[in-house]
Every structure is written in C-alpha cells, then in structure tokens.
Amino acid sequence: MFGIFFEEINHAGAGGLWAELVSNRGFEAGGPNTPSNIDPWLIIGDESSIIVGTDRTSCFERNPVALRMEVLCDSKRTNACPSGGVGVYNPGYWGMNIEKGKVYKVSLHIRSSDAVSLTVSLTSSDGLQKLGAHTIKGSKKSFAKWTKIEFHLKSSQNNTNSRLQLTTSKSGVIWLDQVSVMPLDTYMGHGFRKDLSLMLANLKPQFLKFPGGNYAMGNYLRNAFRWSETVGPWEERPGHFNDAWGYWTDDGLGFFEFLQLAEDLGASPVWVVNDGASLNEEVSTATIASLVKDVVNGIEFARGGPKTPWGSVRAAMGHPQPFKLDYVSIGNQECWMLYYRGNYQKFYSAIKAAYPDINIISSCDGSTISPSNPADLYDVHVYTSSSNMFSRTSMFDNTPRSAPKAIVSEYAVTGNDAGKGTLVAALAEAAFLIGLERNSDVVEMASCAPLFVNDNDRRWSPDAIVFNSWQHYGCPNYWMLHLFKDSSGAALHPTTIQISNYDQLVASAITWQNAKDKSSYLRIKVVNFGNRAVDLNISVAGLANGIKNSGSQQTVLTSSSPLDENSFQQPEKVVPVSSPLGNAKQQMGVSVRPYSLSSFDLLLEASKHGSI
C-alpha cells in the first residue's frame, strides 16, 4: 500500500539521488547557440593565458556543444603558464563530497590539434589541496579525433567541498566534452547515492512513482520529460531544462534508471507518462497519435523481449530481462484541461490493446469513471493544513465500495505550521494514513510529496528527506512512515475509540509478520493530535492467537513542542523511540503523550496452523 513518489524537484535527482558529481557535464545547459554559458564551470587562469568558450563540434549528434580551451601560455619562460597550469574547474552541485580511500570513475572525451598533457584532479574548493590526480598525455595524432578516456582516481583525503580541475601548461587548443565523475561505491552498483538510497530502502516501499508531477509535464512541452531521450549511453542523452523547477538536468537519471531503482528497492514502478499536456500547452486529440505510440514504445522498452525494437535498447544497457512495469499513470492531475479526456481515451485504448494487464491510472476523480471512461485506478492529491489533514482521516469513509480504487500519490501538510517539516505536520499525515489503512478496500496506494530536497535549492517545503553533498536527515514525516512500512500486506482489524469530550485521537490495528524471524505482531497505532495526555484502556477481542507475556514493545514519535523539526545540527531531535512493553495482554492500560504517534507491537503466540 505505502510507497514513494519521486519528482525531480529541489535537485532531488541531479545533485542528489543520482551520484554524478559533475554539474553540466556535457556543456549543454547553456543552450544550443554558441558561445554559451558554461555555468557552473569556471576558468583557471586569466585572458592572457587561456580563452575558454563553447562551439558545436562535439562528436555526439544529439549533444553538439563542446568546450574549447585555447591555451596561450606554455612551459617556456617567455610566456610561462602560472604554477599548476591553466584550465577549467567544476564545483559540482554546491561542492563535491570526496571521501578518503574511495575510488571515483572519471570519464571524458578529448580532441586536440596539438600534443596533449592534461592533468585531471580532484581538489579542495580553492584548488590548493590535491585529493587525487591523473595526467593524460598523447602525441598530436593521439587526439586528432574525439577520443574517450576513462580512469579511476583514489582520494587521499576527505573533503566535503571539493571540485574537479582540468589543467595544462602546454599551449594549443583542446576540446572537451561529456566530463563525468562517479563514485564506484553506489547503491547496488547502479549509480544511486548510497546513503540516500538506503533511506528509501529502509521504508520498504511497495511502489515507486516517477518521474514526477510537473516535471513530467514541463511548463512547456519542449521541456517535458521525454523517456526516449533519456535512455541509451549517457553521453548521447541530450538532457533538458527542467523549466517546472528551474534547473538543467543531464538526464543521467533517466527512464531506465528509474526502472532499475524500483527493481533494486523491490518496488513496483508506476510510470507517469506525458500525455501531450504541459502547464501551458496541450496537444489536441486530433494530433495525439504520435505521442500515444511513443508511450506504447516506452512500455515495450520496459517490458519487451530483448529482440524487440525497444527491448533490444534496454538489453544493450545491461538488462536483457524485462522490468515488471504494471502501472501507468496518464498525466498529472489534468482532468480539467480541454483535451485530457479525449486524449486519455486514446492512451487507454492503445495501451490496453498491447498490454491488457497494465493498470491504467486516470487523473480524473473516481466519480467520473464509467464504462465509457474506464480506469483501473484514479489519482488523488492532497495538500492542506495540518488541522484539515487530520480531519481527512475520514476522507474515504463514505466512498462507494466499487472499483476503481484510488492512488493517493501526493499528500503533504503545507502552510504555517508545516515549517521545513514539523512534528505536528507528521502527526496530521499519520492520522490521514490511518484513515487510508481503514479504507484500504478503496485505496490501493499512498505516497508523500516531495520526497527529497537538496538544502541548497529548496523549491518546496516541507520534504521528507533533506540532504547536501555529504549529509542527510529525515524529517518527522519520514520517521512517521517507518511505523506504516509493515502495513503493506498486513491484515487490518476494526477499531473503535471511546473517549468523552476529546476528538483528537485516531487509531488503527493490524497484524503483521516480521520477515526476519517470522514472528507475528498485533500493531495498534494511536495518533494524539491534541495537547492533552490520555490514559487508554486497550481491549483486544477476537484474535485467534494469544498475546505473549514478553517480547512486545512500544514506539513513540513525539517531542517537546509540536513545531519541533530535525536539522543537520540535530538530525534526530524528532525520531521514533522504542522501549519494551512489559504489560502486554488483551486487556491493558497505556498512556498516550500529547502530540504523539504511538505504536504498540504486541507479540503473538505462534499459531498451531501456521497462520493468525
């Protein structure tokens, strides 16, 4: 039931989950017209010693822009280069985190009309501390044509604010393109930043929805996420400007990588397709056919055999076995747009004709679904205040119990008391999720939004996970999700709360099994959204298995103030705290603290028949 929704916002992928350290590695971010802006690349040396610009001489057809360095100085006294040489450097995404003893794969393409002696080094932000270096040397003939160079650099020091330098003291002209630095130590070896990936894995997500909401659409269609432009060798991907959130993406984190991440996490991929709509444009139903075919091709890329036209592209990328893509979402909350319903019908019919088992998600409300406007699921987004989110624990109580189910793919508390991720916001969301648990017969999936924020580029608050180049922490709503990660596949039990003159409690109960030791538990979760401590008498009836005398525990998420947040300075100020629960039995008293989420895990006796 519970999963994650990834959007390329807040530099969540570029400069975040995707471990590439070089920003604007292909020099395409400045646009196709040259000379262009090479930001964040900067020049080492002055105009008397080096002239740097871009031209359209790259060997990559879809990435025509390359960097041209004309070195005017040399090693001779008459026009000697400064100590260390001249060239360019890249600071990455607000500094590269280079770790002592770690190995980094460096890749770049070079062309030159002269002999080459180019030093590639990882250094401190001022260039004075050398962490690792390699010198590329070759005769005039060696680099007359574009040549790919790859090597490993092992760092001798730690530095959380490093940069990549390319320097020379030899006069002549050198062209550079597609410069990459990737740590070898990534999650599952697939290019994802390890610490951030583990934060996701620890949530046990059942699905991964991608590549975003507005990011999938774009402000304008020319900047939408185009899956086919993001597959194949990374050097050949053109990249695109993420105009929805205001920054360039090299598309190293592309369609293939999202599918790979879902597989690595053991999650079902949920692909949000661009259906011909951006925030400011629409393709009419009369001309939508080519975009429909493009989406069907994308499904073939994911699911087709290795000898199919698009399946062979996937196989060439190292994954001959098909990915298990079972969910496709048509658009991003676009039901209000002029052509959505007509276009949706085209996508639905074409996808079902080719892949009848795929679950198709509509952007329209469940009340609009009918035999003439079919859908397997419908998408719901909830952004609201903490008090309103708490009240929405009953949002689906009166929903008709007939298909299709909802996917609440984006929910978040926003507003004044949300801050950058407060305790009270997490508690309101927990109450909402308890409501979804209780209504899991009409709600299939749920995920919060946004998932990540690079603290250097906070486009949206709050977010579940905050990071910079070398640190990370979970906000209270991230830790809250840990108390729901065992709900997927669990058995729900009916609960009632009886308390006078206090309407700030919400509760649910499930039985779940620990995958490691196969122990079974009854988990009772209680959200106290008010400022009053409450003593509760818990009464359990109807369980086939008794409650063991020992082995139970309680876990509480709370803090001294409802507006408390985590930070880099106090990353665990608001986190769940577990302790043994000594009085576990079918009738027992517990105390629930103000502004808290409490989870009581009662260890059950083993069943004689192997089930609860």
Describe the structure.
With 612 residues, the protein is an alpha+beta fold. The chain is built from nine helices and 32 strands. The chain has an eight-stranded parallel sheet with strand order 1-13-16-17-18-19-20-21. Strand 8 and strand 9 form a beta hairpin. Helix 4 runs parallel beside helix 6. The protein is globular.
Biggest sheet: strand arrangement: 1-13-16-17-18-19-20-21
Distance between the termini: 20 Å
The 3D shape can be described as globular
- Number of beta-strand segments: 32
How many DSSP helices?
A: 9
Q: Can you summarize the main beta sheet?
A: 8 strands, parallel
Subcellular location: Secreted, Extracellular space, Extracellular matrix
Pfam family, one: ASD1_dom
Family: Belongs to the glycosyl hydrolase 51 family.
Catalytic activity: Hydrolysis of terminal non-reducing alpha-L-arabinofuranoside residues in alpha-L-arabinosides
Walk me through the topology.
Layout: E1 4-5, E2 42-44, E3 50-55, E4 66-71, E5 86-90, E6 96-98, E7 103-112, E8 116-124, E9 130-138, E10 147-154, E11 159-168, E12 172-183, H1 194-201, E13 207-210, H2 214-217, E14 240-242, E15 247-249, H3 255-265, E16 268-273, H4 289-303, H5 311-316, E17 327-330, H6 340-354, E18 359-362, E19 377-384, H7 386-391, E20 405-413, H8 423-438, E21 443-448, E22 452-454, E23 465-467, E24 472-474, H9 476-481, E25 491-493, E26 505-513, E27 520-528, E28 534-539, E29 553-557, E30 577-580, E31 587-592, E32 596-603
Parallel strand pairs: 1-13, 13-16, 16-17, 17-18, 18-19, 19-20, 20-21, 22-23
Antiparallel strand pairs: 2-5, 3-4, 4-12, 5-11, 6-11, 7-10, 7-12, 8-9, 8-11, 14-15, 23-24, 25-26, 26-27, 27-32, 28-31, 29-30, 29-32
Helix pairs in contact: 4-6
